[in-house]
Structure formats: structure tokens, C-alpha cells
Hints:
Layout: E1 4-6, E2 12-14, H1 21-29, H2 38-51, H3 56-61, H4 63-69, H5 75-78, H6 83-90, H7 99-119, H8 122-127, H9 146-157, H10 165-174, H11 188-197
Antiparallel strand pairs: 1-2
Helix pairs in contact: 2-7, 2-10, 9-10
GO molecular function: DNA-3-methyladenine glycosylase activity; metal ion binding
GO biological process, one term: base-excision repair
Keywords: Metal-binding, Zinc
Amino acid sequence: MSRVFTGPDGQDRCFWCEGWAPYIAYHDEEWGYPVSDDIRLFEKICLEGFQAGLSWRTILAKRENFRAAFDGFDYNKVARYTEADVLRLLGDAGIVRHRGKIEAVINNAARAQAVVAREGSLAKWIWSFAPEQPEHAPGDVPAKTPASEALSRALRKDGWKFVGPTTVYAFMQAMGMVNDHMPGCGHHARAEAARAAFLQP
């Protein structure tokens, strides 16, 4: 299987985003570009938890619904959710209605607050786990890496849920903590330039 495809605009992209315009936009505008905003980091780690057992395409199609349902993933608001909110969310057909994953988001919101109180920001702590050097050959993308295993262990020790090493690695890829755009992808060099210019929190 080719690791890239050529889009209608003539640009080569990672194979996984072929065939769906929102996927291509996500690939071009977001995936692999570094993020330091605490709310966006919290949102993404929660959405990756919802993805467990599903596809990212399913979650991406529902992302705006998730944002509306969870107060824009403002962890200070979500941490105050009660059982009434859990029932509200379980009745929301626009999201993935899985009690364990919904309760994990609420739990993780409180854990995020604790990280911010302790470290100053969620971004500062999360980014401290970014690998200094690539952990695999370009184009040979594993399901997890030593860095994702280390971050997963730290999150779970802190009480976070639905943060296994594979879930965490998908999060790290998306948030630009690593550059897993295929070598032939037109965004590989762009993402690398963005990472080089990024001021780590």
C-alpha cells in the first residue's frame, strides 16, 4: 500500500486521510502541528479516549457535537459535572453514549485541574514527555512508543482514565509532539518547521 496519495489539488498527503474532505482538512490544518493550549490538549485526549474501539473518522464527524455537549471541553466546567450531566450526556445522540467514557472525561477534568495547580499548565507537564529524538524510522509508524508508554503511566498514576499507551500515542501524533506525517507527504516538512519554531511550554 502506498503511504501517500495525490489529492485533486496535486498535493501528496498521508494515505489515511484519503477519501473524505473533513479528514483531509484535519490532516492539513491540525494533525501533527504542535499545540500548547490547555483546552485543546484536554479536548484531544478526551476525544482519543472516546475513539477507543472506534475510528477517528467517527469521532471527527461528531466533534462539534462533543464540544457543545462538554462545554467546549473547558475542564474547569466539566470537573463540576454531576450525575445529572452524565444522564444528559447519555441521552445525547450526537455523541458516543458510553457511560464509562463520559465518566472518564469528568474524572479527567478534575485530574487536569490538579496538574495545572501543580505544574502551572497542562501543556507544560504534557510536553515534558515529548521525545527529544525520533523513536522510529520515518514512515514506520508504531502503535505506541516508549514516550507514549511513559506519558500513559504518568497519567494513570495521576488518576486519569482511558489513557492507554496506544491512545496516548495517537494524542501525541495529533498534537505535534512527534511528526508522523509520511516522508512523501507535503505536510511533513511543514509540520517539522512548525515544531522547530514551537516554544515548548
